[in-house]
Amino acid sequence: MRIAEINDKNKWEKFLAENSPHSLFSSWSWGEVSSRIYSREKADFKRLAFIDRDLEGIFQVQKIHARRGSFLHIRHGPVLKTWKKEYFELLQAYLIERARELGAVFIRISPLIENSPENRLIIESAGFTASPVHRMDGEVCWVLDLSADEDRLLAGMRKTTRYLIKNAAKAGVVIQKSADKKNLESFQKLYNLTAQRQGFIRHRGIEEEFEQFAKDGQIMIFEGFFQNILLSSAMILFYNHQAIYHHSASIPSKAPVNYLLQWEVIKEAKRRGKSVYNFWGIAPDGLDRHPWKNLTLFKKGFGGEQVNYLHAHDYPVSKLGYRFNYLVEYFRKIYKGY
């Protein structure tokens, strides 16, 4: 068993589709996006594979520069055929050596695997501990099964949600969808306004994300208008078996634009043959101050179920440096209500 670089996109995507098709941030395209986002920082990026007699696993590792301490990050990975202790020990040894070469304070992994005692034991017995950051990257998400027909999907929604979808259409709400980059500018303007109003930090690389996934026809922008005014916009990814509600922006309005927009996304996902619509992250149960509380209520109204994946885990390479990072991220999470 060895770790080696891999440069075959088709082989990479085939392995991912067979072993973890929901792992967006392990996709080849996301690797391209990540490389572009951090290119100005000259951040180290590698696309690697576990090789035995065959391909046994894949992962993308990126060095992230941060004032609280640089770290190596594997988002939605590693992806393995089988989670075995010896595979993870090989990965750990490689990452520790790489972190020391690059001066990284710690290593962070966030594989989309079941949050089971067995999986936690493999990771935590190797010295990894639960990360102090909030549950990001779709660890706790809301997912809608799209196998039912449209009538049954509507019937499975909250009564209020179903009413608002129908009311929006009657009131003259118009939903437009496009994969044209010209719509990205309108989205960005609305997104900036939303970030200012709600006080969150904008995601980096939205333009890079759109351009990369557009190459394979895997992204669309949905726009909601009422009385010819753009009130809502969403960037939807169509990757492997799922549609993903990845970015959104809106202006507060009494018109139920967002509800009809989501219904149009669901219908587009079914048209493309997707099996699930991933509404992405929601607030974990019991956190009344969570910033996503209202958004979670909105998402759950469309029917579906909650899916929980293993929380991100960290391995300290420099214990003193990691202690500082831990405190910064922990108190930031508490302050923001996560």
UniProtKB/TrEMBL annotation:
<dbReference type="GO" id="GO:0016755">
    <property type="term" value="F:aminoacyltransferase activity"/>
</dbReference>
<dbReference type="GO" id="GO:0009252">
    <property type="term" value="P:peptidoglycan biosynthetic process"/>
</dbReference>
<dbReference type="GO" id="GO:0008360">
    <property type="term" value="P:regulation of cell shape"/>
</dbReference>
<dbReference type="InterPro" id="IPR050644">
    <property type="entry name" value="PG_Glycine_Bridge_Synth"/>
</dbReference>
<dbReference type="InterPro" id="IPR016181">
    <property type="entry name" value="Acyl_CoA_acyltransferase"/>
</dbReference>
<keyword id="KW-0808">Transferase</keyword>
<protein>
    <submittedName>
        <fullName>Methicillin resistance protein</fullName>
    </submittedName>
</protein>
<keyword id="KW-0961">Cell wall biogenesis/degradation</keyword>
<dbReference type="Pfam" id="PF02388">
    <property type="entry name" value="FemAB"/>
</dbReference>
<comment type="similarity">
    <text>Belongs to the FemABX family.</text>
</comment>
<dbReference type="GO" id="GO:0071555">
    <property type="term" value="P:cell wall organization"/>
</dbReference>
<keyword id="KW-0573">Peptidoglycan synthesis</keyword>
<keyword id="KW-0133">Cell shape</keyword>
<dbReference type="InterPro" id="IPR003447">
    <property type="entry name" value="FEMABX"/>
</dbReference>
<keyword id="KW-0012">Acyltransferase</keyword>
